[in-house]
Amino acid sequence: MNTTKLIIVAVGGQGNLLASKVLGEAALLSGVPVRMSEIHGMAQRGGVVESALVFGDGESTIISDGQADVFVSFEPAEALRALRKCQPRTVSIINLSPSPPFTVAIGRGVYPDIDEVIRLIKEKTSRLIAFDAVALASQAGSVMAVNMVLLGALAQTGVLPLPIENIRKAIETRTKQSFANINLNAFQLGFDAASKSI
């Protein structure tokens, strides 16, 4: 089986790790070998959280610069920070709703221009799916469902070797039952948005 290498980046509290667990569960349901690793950094203080998932016959979870087949960023500035992982054939999915660090709030930092972020990602990758995932999560019923919106967009690309029904099953089993319907709605909204995105 060929390998598919996925990088997911976010800031602490955005649900990156749950998204990774859902994909891992979906891989198990699909009989697809998967290896996962996570870098938490200063996650509890809004720092970067990065997950690497390798589907298929890969022997390592290390995804070096220029090796990602798929790149998902929950935050635009984090997309720029991790863009080195991409290559010309990478499919990228970006949430365009910023979550600026506190240094920007106190005037000690400058947040990158979103149009410039889009331009740089388009130059580096083969396909860019970019939209406001926070707005869609709110529409689904909870701003906390941004991760499920982005999983829906990821599923729509067809890049991962996972049937969509198994991702849905994994959402039902790996997320709290009280949020299952919201999460499934968010997944569907992300799936639909990806087919219309820039």
Topology:
Elements: E1 4-11, H1 16-30, E2 34-39, E3 48-55, E4 70-73, H2 76-81, E5 91-95, H3 102-105, H4 114-124, E6 127-131, H5 133-140, H6 146-157, H7 164-174, H8 180-194
Helix pairs in contact: 1-7, 5-6, 5-8, 6-8, 7-8
Could you list some keywords that capture this structure?
8 helices; globular; Pyruvate-ferredoxin Oxidoreductase, domain 3; alpha/beta; 6-stranded mixed beta sheet; 198 residues; single chain
Describe this structure in words.
With 198 residues, the protein is of the alpha/beta class. It has a single domain (4-194), classed as Pyruvate-ferredoxin Oxidoreductase, domain 3. Helix content is 41%, strand content 18%. The chain contains 8 helices and 6 strands. A 6-stranded mixed β-sheet has the order 2-3-1-4-5-6, sandwiched between helices. Strand 4 (70-73), helix 2 and strand 5 form a beta-alpha-beta unit. Helix 5 (133-140) packs across helix 8 (180-194). The longest helix has 15 residues, at 16-30. It is globular and about 50 Å long. It starts with a strand and ends with a helix. The model has no long low-confidence stretch (mean pLDDT 91).
What would you say about this model in short?
The protein has 198 residues and is α/β, with parallel strands linked by helices. It is 41% helix and 18% strand. The chain has 8 helices and 6 strands.
| CATH class assignment | Alpha Beta
Q: Count the helices. How many?
A: 8
Q: H/E element string?
A: EHEEEHEHHEHHHH
Please, what is the CATH homologous superfamily?
Answer: Pyruvate-ferredoxin oxidoreductase, PFOR, domain III
- Relative strand content: 15-25%
Task: Name the strands of the widest sheet in spatial order.
Answer: 2-3-1-4-5-6
Instruction: Return the CATH architecture.
Output: 3-Layer(aba) Sandwich
What overall form do the CA principal axes indicate?
globular
Number of domains: 1
> What fraction, in percent, of the residue positions are helical?
40-55%
Distance between the termini: 31 Å
**What is the strand tally?**
6
Q: What does the main sheet amount to?
A: 6 strands, mixed
* Rg, alpha carbons: 16 Å
Structural class: alpha/beta
